[in-house]
Amino acid sequence: MPPEPSGGAALHYRALEGLYRSAPVNALFDSEIEIPREGQARVTFTVTEQAYHAAGAAHGTIYFKMLDDAAFYAANTLVTDRFLLTTSFNLHFTKPVRAGRVVAEGRWISGRRRVLVAESRLVDAEGDEIGRGTGTFMRSRIALSGLEGYRG
């Protein structure tokens, strides 16, 4: 197991976690983020019936939200000055989820300059993979230091 991040890296990861918590959209979800090290992020969600489609399982929008968040934050660990923007995202649904805790695990794949690629997967409470995604993220002109949630 790699050592816990320290110094500037740890401060950046904690600031990214604060940024996640500060986003108004995240008040709509019972979720929490953890950034353990560079290139990784884990977002834990509780899926409830409020996210269901008419057939009684979580709507695809919740899959996208969970997968995008984990991949985005995994990628943004490598960028300390700018907010990233999702430019594309591919989703693969492998199992419906009805309710309970779901963990989105994000991992940076490639790119460090202008465009970064990260993948993520969703694991349900039984430990089954229920979805997978790959995203492309681009550096924006938005300075992280200018975002209230990042500054804490």
Describe the structure concisely for a colleague:
This protein has 152 residues and is of the alpha+beta class. The chain has helices at residues 7-22, 60-76, 148-151; strands spanning 30-34, 40-47, 82-93, 100-110, 115-123, 129-143. Strands 1-2-4-5-6-3 form a six-stranded antiparallel sheet.
List the helices and strands and how they pair.
Blueprint: H1 7-22, E1 30-34, E2 40-47, H2 60-76, E3 82-93, E4 100-110, E5 115-123, E6 129-143, H3 148-151
Antiparallel strand pairs: 1-2, 2-4, 3-6, 4-5, 5-6
Notes on the protein architecture:
- With 152 residues, this protein is an alpha+beta fold.
- It has one domain (7-151): Thiol Ester Dehydrase, Chain A (Roll), CATH 3.10.129.10.
- The protein has 3 helices and 6 strands, in the order H-E-E-H-E-E-E-E-H.
- The protein has helices spanning 7-22, 60-76, 148-151; strands at residues 30-34, 40-47, 82-93, 100-110, 115-123, 129-143.
- The chain is globular.
- The two termini are 29 Å apart.
- The model has no long low-confidence stretch (mean pLDDT 95).
Q: Which labels suit this protein?
A:
152 residues, alpha+beta, Thiol Ester Dehydrase, Chain A, six-stranded antiparallel sheet, 3 helices, 6 strands, 39% strand
Q: How far apart, in Å, are the first and last alpha carbons?
A: 29 Å
Major beta-sheet overview:
6 strands, antiparallel
Question: What's the CATH class label?
Answer: Alpha Beta
Which CATH architecture? Roll
Strand order, sheet with most strands: 1-2-4-5-6-3
**CATH fold name, please?**
Thiol Ester Dehydrase, Chain A
Question: Over all CA atoms, what is the radius of gyration?
Answer: 15 Å
Strand elements, count? 6
Give the uncertain stretches in residue-range form.
none
Strand content: 35-45%
- The pLDDT mean sits at 95
Q: CATH H level: which superfamily?
A: Hotdog Thioesterase
Classify the secondary structure makeup into a structural class.
alpha+beta
Order of H and E elements? HEEHEEEEH
Quaternary arrangement of the chains shown?
single chain
The number of distinct structural domains comes to 1
Shape: globular
Number of helices: 3
Helix content: 10-25%
